[in-house]
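Re: export button greyed out
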Amino acid sequence: MARIPLAYNLRNLAARRLSTGLTALGIALVAWVFIFTLALAGGFQAALTTTGTKENAIIIRKGSTSELMSILTREAVGAIESQGEIARAPDGTPLAASELMVVWNLPRKSGTTTNVVVRGVGPKSFALRPKVKLVRGRMFRQGFDEIMVGRMVAERFQRCDVGDRLKLAGREWTVVGVFDSKGSTYDSEIWGDVELFMPVFDRPVYQSLTLRLAEPGYLAPLKKRLESDPRMNVEVEREDRFYADQSGQLTSMLRVLGLFVTSIMSLGAIFGALNTMYAAVGNRTREIGTLRAIGFSRGAILTSFLIESVLLALLGGLLGCLLALPVRSFTTGTMSFATFSELAFRFQVTPGMLLLGLAFSAFMGLLGGFLPARKAATMPIVDSLRQA
Amino acid sequence: MKYLRYVLSHLWHSKRRTFLTVSSIAVALFLFCTLRTVMTSLDAGLRASDDTRLVVRHAASLVFPLPLAYRDRLAQVPGVVKVGYGNWFGGYYQDEKNQFTQFAVDVSTVFDLYPEILLGPAEKEAFLRERTACIAGEALVKKYGWKLGDKIPITGTIYPGEWPLILRGIYRAATPDADENAIFFHWDFLNESMPEGRKNLVGIYWLKVASPSDAPRVSAAVDQIYENSPVPTKTETEKAFQAGFIQMMGNVSTLLTILGSAIIFAILLVTVNTMMMAARERTTEIAVLKTLGFRDGLVLQLVAAEAMLLSLAGGLIGCGLAFLVFRKVNFTAGGMIPNFRVLPETLLLGILLACAMGLLSGLVPAFSAARLPIASSLRKVA
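Workaround output, generated via the alternate export path:
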């Protein structure tokens, strides 16, 4: 069966430049919105899923959904640190850090205020999180009024860069360093010495204990023993799962919002594509008659018009992908419900998202092209040749 | 007006195109109304706030509590008429997904401070009398199918354990912006169940002042009292407090605005295209009209009117749909937006937007129709 050459479709699209351009741009915007919402949800999720590692376990009070609501007494912490499943530092001490977490209201650079996580960390905290790297300044010294801030905090909040002095809990602290943790939630936190924070923030207890497991398989027995001990009243979780769980609700909400908006919006674009393709068929009635008269089958006509519609949509999809690339550099902050404070993250555009955007565009083209293509294919030859 | 039939018959003639165009505009306006309602619903707390109510919280952040002992001192501050207090409970019902507002409140003052909570006298009495009683908003009660006397177990996250509350009253909200998706229960019940060390701690205090003009003075006076204490306070009007909350959400509204603009722009392109195609197909007809003596201005109006009519129809359908759909469903986005309600001004704005789209999409084809040279266009088509 003879196929109508692709060049025919390309020339047709080029002949109706304005109409092609407008329709493609419409589809491009739908693809853009589609990728934008995916990138937003993906970025938020990535921030939380890259925060923990599976080698670590985190321990919080039973029933707490986040560190903020948790309480661990010094006695409990002491008992946990003596467990055999914990990896040891070179000096033989357990590789575990009991930490304090409070949230503090600070002004953003824009002038509005929001809560920021202030984490009191111990000497092992950095060893437990090798991703956290100093990018400017130096580490804080234990026992001094010094703090370090995450990269996002330095970028987004007032008086939060190296050398600045920040007031927290009635005391002035010097920001001595900025650290980066490759986009994890630590980037949105302020870190300082836990033993100094406890009296200053008037907190006699810790919030969480993070530890390195000597063997990944040790999680289950440790979890079983600690959670069944009624004096402890704790929950043990793998660190990566713990943080990933916090992303669940908002991520799925963002995804649902994105899906809702794009699916409804794509309806509008499909209607537009239908209009364009119907007009294309209508304008070329005689041409279609001629094609049929010289021997092209109905199937060939149908395929040709479908191809034209999909090409048009793909053109839009490609444009949408191109427009979506700069979205990668957007950062935004939103309130994380788990910590009741700001979590800043970068939009994440992955090749998979772009491919999905393209596939989505092609699908719109297919849907928008089918009915007009069928109309073109089923036209009686004689009538169409006679028509204007 | 006498040409309305001409315009209508055109639209009727190309039924399919009319239908498709109106639908795509309707879709865009429906989305616009939805996104804008997400934004305005986040602000519902602002509209529901009262200028004579102040909120006192810990200066550092809401997550830190204040001592119960502040209550009596606050009551003595000149200008303060009433002091109430409560703790955000932050639990869930049966499943973590079922989140909504739960507040443990001082029941002796809550109804004075919040006259927006409408409760029958018998139910109020039953609620006040019983330590484990609670009241819930009508929308919430409907959502979970509760009845008076039901035991509603709420699982705490800040206050661990399961709290067996008994539903003794179903309240309605006096204003449409007040939250009808909430539960209130006895602060005393919460407090008694707390271990030593977590007792007698209050999340926030509400102060009632006689007139809005007292607010700045009272706020300053309160914060001054505790300025150098270990537990300093921050006092602000309810409106400022709510605004602070919205600020914490970050730039949600910017994101929604970006999405909304992209949608409107996309559909605008589609509509412009359609209108241009429609005008192009009628080149001969327009030339005939002009030959018959129709002036350029009138031709322009006729083509523009067609675009306008299409957009207006789409706008009305889209906005109407949004209004109807969201009135029927009690949509709360997993408890995050407790008061999802399409505001009248959103609908109005939507219709205006549709008109603007009609105007813009009709402009290009209308002008090119008006400028159409008669002779050559008559010749174009054999």
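Chain A has a mean pLDDT of 91. The button fix ships in the next patch.
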